[in-house]
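Workshop exercise sheet. Pairs work together: one partner reads the sequence aloud, the other fills in the structure field after running the prediction. Swap roles for the next sheet.
Pair: D.N. / O.F.
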Amino acid sequence: MRRIQTKQLKEWKQRSNRKPLILRGARQVGKTWLMKEFAREEYDDYIYLNFEDDEPLKSLFMQDFDMTRIIQTIELYTSKRVSPGVVLLFDEIQEAPRGVTSLKYFYEKRPDIHVIAAGSLLGIASKQNGSFPVGKVDFVDVNPMSFLEFVVASGQETLATAIETRRWDLLGAMSAKLRELLLQYYFVGGMPEVVKMFVENHDYNEVRRIQNAILDTYDNDFSKHAPVAEVPRIRMVWNSIRGQLAKENKKFLYGALKKGARAREFEVAIEWLRDAGLVYKVNRTKKGLLPLSAYEDFSAFKLYLLDLGLLTAMSKLSHQVLIDGNTLFLDAKGAFAEQYVLQQLKAHGNNIDIYYWSAEN
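Structure field:
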């Protein structure tokens, strides 16, 4: 498996002013695999701490930010030495009180120690915790796998290289294979666990089972981590996205959630889903002229899911309908194509600002 973010991690390691690195992204987009694989390839050894699974570790930063004490505790807990050539991996760091804040002190007091942290709900934790170490950490966003990464995972390395190098002469001859892979990607999407299972077994039923399990995990997060009063509204927004995209709407319609709904009722719910990395909010641009930001319409936006495969799962779309080109697929009005394009821009666009356009009339 190859991930786009590996290049960014290598660049981070080589920086002279390197700061602790935070990997941001929703649950199950591959943050843990990415940092472990990078550590295996680039370091002599690594120390992995999961603050969600290891209950005793949650108090690691509560007493103080004495780096000597913290490092000695880590060494005693893991039976490994924190030394040059060893990287610290902090997973689900938002589950440790003051864990994110501790990164500031690693940067200021022990810049020689390489630290990579990850968290599924860091966007939410940062808003709840006013002591977020602004300016003291670096960030890399981890998204679901792009189509190019899916092609590589499918064993088509030569085809992926042809795409990357824009060898249109070769790609034209491979159009049938590209179309096959693209339709598979529409169904499977880019969640790494789903992709891994599919390329090993090509079992579409198992793909859907894992996708539904991931969706259940997200739904459980609504109840576990969101404000109780917002949970029903979060679910209403979440469950409406597929239907909203499938209609030829010029923007997200609050009235589609419930009769008489207003923006102020659902603003917190939408922001919670964004902070959790589960949806992308894309504002409209009034004109296709540069810079697009000059024509941004803040009153009109669309919501997209984090992953194309999860969109097909939420749509209850069977692989026969999709892969065989059944006309039922056409009823989606381009929703899957929009989601696909957005996902590729997010994966390859280096944090560019993304907009959509629709005519006034």
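Discussion prompt: The chain has a mean pLDDT of 92. What would you look at next?
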